[in-house]
Specification:
The chain is an alpha/beta fold. About 40% of the residues lie in helices and about 20% in strands. Strand 7, helix 8 and strand 8 form a beta-alpha-beta unit. The chain is globular, with a radius of gyration of 17 Å. One of its GO terms (molecular function) is triacylglycerol lipase activity.
């Protein structure tokens, strides 16, 4: 396998987007979900190794995370430009694989007309029914206020309870975990994913017009043992997109082993 190459692309607004690349083959860009980036998500590196020969895999630090810089003010369009910069480096058209809220950003990128060959989306965290409480209407505003007041831990706590579904009584233990400093470090970016999700976690049907321009082949996946809301969310998206295929990943939750994902990606590419 070609050795991992840590490098950077420059987005349209001058933001430096750091990325890792593995393997040889057609280009594949991975978009992480809220709080994640390659240094703390080893699945991306393992997946890149397993896909060598079929894909050259690119996984990047979304703006404001890891080694990437950030430029205010935030807009979803800026993150789409970041993906465009990665695709320019990787080579177009690229397959784009999005995890969780990264899957929603991938959809937005395809709808914006980026040079995307196919989409692979793992558990976009929509809330389309009453299987879990909807995201509070003031979620993004509360995140912004906590960060502006210099309280990144409060922003992380809002994310863990309101978005990730952790029980408030479990927060003390989570705050003592080795993951907590990572959450605090990326806390200013949590509201970015809140803006990307928009109204899609309200318990209502998905908007029919937001991704109407998406015409590329799309694989939508969910684990069979995942959070209850994820299964109807994946089904709703697959029903919404005429070019979508829905795949259940047996026994998995809000992630899946690299070997399982690699097999699905290779099969979908064929």
């Amino acid at each position: 396998m070609t050795e991992n190459a840590r490098a950077a692309a420059v987005s349209a607004d001058g933001t430096v987007i750091a990325f890792d690349a593995w393997g040889e083959g057609e280009p594949l860009v991975i978009i992480d979900g809220a709080t994640a980036y390659p240094a703390i998500n080893p699945i991306n590196a393992e997946l890149g190794g397993l896909l060598d020969g079929a894909f050259r895999t690119y996984a990047y630090d979304r703006r404001g995370r890891g080694d990437s810089t950030d430029t205010a003010p935030y807009a979803i369009e800026r993150e789409i430009e970041d993906i465009a910069a990665l695709i320019e480096v990787a080579g177009a058209p690229a397959t784009v694989f999005g995890w969780s809220s990264g899957a929603v950003l991938a959809l937005d990128a395809a709808a914006a007309g980026l040079k995307i060959k196919r989409l692979v989306l793992f558990e976009p965290p929509f809330v389309v029914d009453d299987s879990r409480p909807p995201l509070p209407a003031d979620y993004v505003e509360r995140l912004d206020a906590a960060v502006a007041a210099g309280r990144p831990g409060d922003a992380a706590a809002i994310f863990m309870t309101d978005a990730a579904g952790a029980a408030p009584e479990d927060l003390a233990g989570i705050r003592e975990s080795e993951f907590w400093p990572v959450l605090e470090a990326v806390a200013p970016t949590i509201a970015y994913d809140g803006r990307i999700m928009g109204t899609t976690m309200s318990g209502n049907p998905l908007p029919r017009d937001r991704w109407a321009a998406v015409t590329v082949p799309t694989l939508v996946m969910h684990g069979t043992n995942t959070f209850p809301a994820m299964i109807p969310a994946a089904r709703a998206l697959a029903e919404l997109l005429p070019t979508a295929t829905l795949r259940q990943v047996e026994g998995e939750q809000h992630s899946a082993p690299p070997a399982v994902l690699a097999a699905e990606l290779r099969a979908f590419a064929r």
